[in-house]
Specification:
binds acetoacetyl-coenzyme A, acyltransferase, globular, Polyketide_synthase_type-III, nine-stranded mixed sheet, single chain, 13 helices, Peroxisomal Thiolase, Chain A, domain 1, Chalcone/stilbene_synt_C, alpha+beta, two-stranded antiparallel ribbon, 13 strands, 398 residues, transferase
Amino acid sequence: MPGATTATIVDSRRCTQHSEGPATVLAIGTANPENIVLQDDFTDYYFGLTKSEHLTELKDKMNRICHKSGIEKRYIHLNAEIIRAHPEIIDKHVPSLETRVDIMATEVPKLAESAARKAIAEWGRPATDITHLIFSTYSGCRAPSADLQLASLLGLRPSVSRTILSLHGCSGGGRALQLAKEIAENNRGARVLVACSELTLICFSTPDESKIVGHGLFGDGAGAVIVGANPSADGEHPLFEMVAASQTMIPGTEHALGMQATSSGIDFHLSIQVPTLIKDNIHQCLLDAFRSVGNTDPNWNDLFWAVHPGGRAILDNIDDKLQLQPWKLAASRQVLSEYGNMSGATIAFVLDELRRRREKEEDMQQQPEWGVLLAFGPGVTIETIVLRNPLSRGLKEN
Ligand SMILES: CC(=O)CC(=O)SCCNC(=O)CCNC(=O)[C@H](O)C(C)(C)COP(=O)(O)OP(=O)(O)OC[C@H]1O[C@@H](n2cnc3c(N)ncnc32)[C@H](O)[C@@H]1OP(=O)(O)O
């Protein structure tokens, strides 16, 4: 039985187990499959791949959506060769869930590994220094799941503390970062690897009016972020401090965004109301987030913005509602243009793009000190993180 000495040690550890500083993004890596599809060619590619050329009205609609999407190209793992090997993927009368889950079981962790290796290389410490792993994907329907496979591929320590988040959709990256923040701030010295890996193959289907927008916007990608508090002075470089985090569900919107496993893979629905629902709720959500850090009258144009680019209309609506200067959502628009909506992985690409833009900025004084990260997913759920640029803070202190 543990005695009084054990109790004293446990009690004293409790006092010192929290970190002193906020959780901080220390490194970012991204990866995509090799196969690139230009958005201008996508309609022909998709209707050809699914042998649906005869659906001319739907094809015209897909063309209209692609032209208005703000997307130039996407990376998509699924190709004609995979369909030749597994024709059930485009036959809705034949079950294909098993085939898809088999492919995902290899490809999802593999893509995550590629992003994670880049993040770990940037971080500069050995992979065995990672204490926690949070993996988010909408493609996982199997255990042991992608988190364990990623841990093995990277050679993480056997005691790494793993969590898998499933079907959080486009808010998966935001949710995983929030959990990483909690872990890093409550476990002194913790270094959390957040990995999101999304492949549309699990929800690929033949053209259908209700899903045509999703097929016109979604792409494949993986993002990895290393999070830890109190960066060590010798070599860890803080990129973004995560100051406060919250999750808000918009009441009565459960019908608007959703995913469900079926015998033909993951079925999804996207209501046409999504951009309006976000527009109507974003202001209050942001006010609540900034009030929680003592800012009751934030000027939205004084911030830097990391917004999940769910679709061009969502970004337009946020711009419009908050009267943002045209360049405020530039990082989100660029990621949308170059990759499409990669669901939960996208937010890592946006953070990566923001820091690249920041590095190019010559005048450090011009860089906003405060920022905000927003991600949207089924619910409709909004994940919000108030961010701070550690470099601007450093300038003020000097
Ligand atoms: C899955 C997750 O967890 C979270 C997510 O991120 S989900 C993805 C969220 N993204 C969205 O909801 C898409 C947001 N929408 C958009 O970006 C834009 O509406 C768009 C690029 C799709 C179209 O651009 P637009 O400026 O609205 O053009 P608009 O002419 O009004 O629409 C083009 C066509 O798309 C249709 N459309 C738009 N949204 C639709 C939807 N959700 N479902 C079905 N059709 C839709 C319109 O009805 C229109 O059809 P017709 O041409 O036949 O009239």
